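hey so u asked for the seq, here:
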Amino acid sequence: MGSIPPDNVNAAARQMEDGNTPKELDAGALFVLKSRGSWLHCGYHLTTSIVAPALLSLPFALSLMGWSAGVLCLIVAAWVTFYSYNLLSLVLEHHAQLGQRQLRFRDMARDILGQGWGRFFVGPIQFGLCYGAVIACILLGGQSLKAIYLLSSPKGTMQLYQFVSIFGVLMLVLAQIPSFHSLRHINLVSLVLCLAYSACATSGSIYIGYSKNAPTKDYSINGSAQNRVFGSFNAISIIATTFGNGIVPEIQATIAPPVKGKMFKGLCVCYAVVVSTFFSVAISGYWAFGNQARGTVLANFMVDEKSLLPTWVLLMTNVFTLSQVVAVTLAYLQPTNEVLERKFADAKIDQFAIRNVVPRLIFRSLSVVIATTIAAMFPFFGDINAVIGAFGCIPLDFVLPMVFYNVTFKPSKHGLLFWANTLIATIFSALGVLGAISSIRQIGLDAKTYHLFANL
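ran it, structure tokens below
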């Protein structure tokens, strides 16, 4: 008979402390989703997974909607996501108190809605969303490296795919970090970095907005009536994806029991950062550049390959952005790592036994190599990721939490809570469909500029 590894014993002991019956954990839950963190660690993980460089696209989203609708959408998205993540946390706490702690989004869907929902709906959607985020982050990392290179060597000849490959090699090494909990210190640094580059982007926009080189401030919405409508839905997809997470259950799984109340504290830490960064970047960027705001506000800081800011400021901003992209990529690799670990590792022996280390090394490396290859081949992946966001972020972050709460707690149909949750789920289901249509349409419009390994 093989001996029970210490982690298995500790997991069982932790569940007994929480008043639950111990149950055997698979390798993915045991090795990747270790339940050892505090509420503060949870706040770091949440901040990294939500406050990412995608927030630099918020001025562009506002340019598609205008001041009133744009700021209103930001406020609604912030309120609804904070509310929905809190509902998810309450459902997870409820099941933990019943002795059925759910460690993954698909576990929630399976236990609450049925086996098919977890296996055929939530599981594939979450995997696609997270792996798509990894590809997008590797591409963004390559673009940040290229921006730094061109600031240092304006006449440099290196191509984007080369920088993507360099960033991919870095991620190949860091992907071997064993568990989500192991990222807590990296994600603390990530929190500081996102505050830093957001401050740089905000102050840069204000500086340019008041400078003699300030662009003409035009806040009208460009295009025909049809294009404006589709642009608005595309902006909603961008904002939803920016606020999206898709891995709240996996983050809550890293908290040591008892879990009650800890997630709410972590959410408060996260949303203090969300409000201070999202709104400052979005409003200052749109104020400075109006309807000329580009896909990322940093692109507006350059005109005809000349910086509108001191070069060192732009260089510092790109370094901060690049550094945080590393942490974001690692966070969104965790669901993939968990699936691979569950499939190929043996939970009955030590996590660092050769039997487990070799498959981990092979399959995590293969996962990063595939993502890097896709990022290098399709540098227009941002358009594709908008579709993934519409099909992934909106169901996971704006719809399912309401459904899970109503099914689990069964609030009275004569009360406000049931109908508020139902209304939110219905509205965002419709917006998800419309956002997906507008994102697909945008791919069609941009298709003429697509080619493999483009040097964008």
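The first strand starts at residue 302 and ends at 303. The two ends are 58 Å apart (CA to CA).
lmk if thats what u needed
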